[in-house]
């Protein structure tokens, strides 16, 4: 199912009621939700790096320090930057 999200705020408002109504928030559910959010965050970081964005820019967007950003990434991670039309 593909959903076009025009505004994150509208999306959260529209879907927050679903969480409130269907998922009782206990410790186990909270841990599962936190784990899923961390996974999505890591996928976003890796995608942005793959698109050529610098770690410093991503850290600024996420509101974290450069050092925290570096610690989030696996050791030895090599991201190939996308090549432009004139690159060999």
Description:
This protein has 88 residues and is mainly alpha-helical. It has a domain at 14-72. The chain contains four helices and no strands. It has helices at residues 8-22, 27-50, 55-62, 66-72. Helix 3 (55-62) packs across helix 4 (66-72). It starts with 7 loop residues before the first helix and ends in a 16-residue tail after the last helix. The mean pLDDT is 76.
The count of helical stretches stands at 4
Biggest sheet descriptor? none
Structural class: mainly alpha
Average the pLDDT over all residues and give the rounded result: 76
From the spread of the alpha carbons, the general shape counts as elongated
Low-pLDDT windows of residues: none
Which range does the strand content fall in?
under 5%
Distance between the termini: 38 Å
Number of beta-strand segments: 0
- The ordered string of helix (H) and strand (E) elements is HHHH
Q: Helix share of residues?
A: 55-70%
**How much is the radius of gyration in Å?**
17 Å
